[in-house]
Amino acid sequence: MKKRTRIIIGIIVxxxxxxxxxxxxxxxxxxxxxxxxxDFKKSIMPISIILTLIITLFGTFDRKEYxxxxxxxxxxxxxxxxxxxxxxxxxxxFVVSLGLKTNRLSSNELITKNFIVTVKxxxxxxxxxxxxxxxxxxxxxxxxxxxxxxxxxxSVNEKQEIVLEMEKGLFGIAFNPTIKK
Length: 181
Hints:
Blueprint: H1 3-29, H2 34-43, H3 45-60, H4 63-66, H5 70-103, E1 109-120, E2 129-133, E3 144-147, H6 150-155, E4 161-168, E5 174-179
Antiparallel strand pairs: 1-2, 1-4, 2-3, 4-5
Helix pairs in contact: 1-5, 3-5
């Protein structure tokens, strides 16, 4: 493949992946708890790494450029490695958003989870957002964020334990949290 064609295809692919990272993934993530997304991201990491290697090799490897002395080959391999490191986050976001979207295609059952409200957004009641955690679940990043309607938001207090009802998706990841009445 010609170098110009590879560059054009690379720019288009990176543009689509960036659009996914900044537009589609945030919309899809709003339907899930942060802890569930974090667990899912860890479980599909090998898929993201393999896909990154494949896309990077197809986009940057050229047999004509790889030939030559040992230093030329090492520099080319280093270049491919650096491109993998740069491109991995956006490919990982793409795989996560595709997985989350696929998870929502089928809802098997309803599950309930307890949720302890840690912080109620007191700065602006327009957002109706509370932060909290699921008991007995390990958090290595942010705590879970839950967006409520106005009536639910006013009835919830800090340190209160509420019951969330969620749908269990195709991959077993719970989505669409709502307060069980």
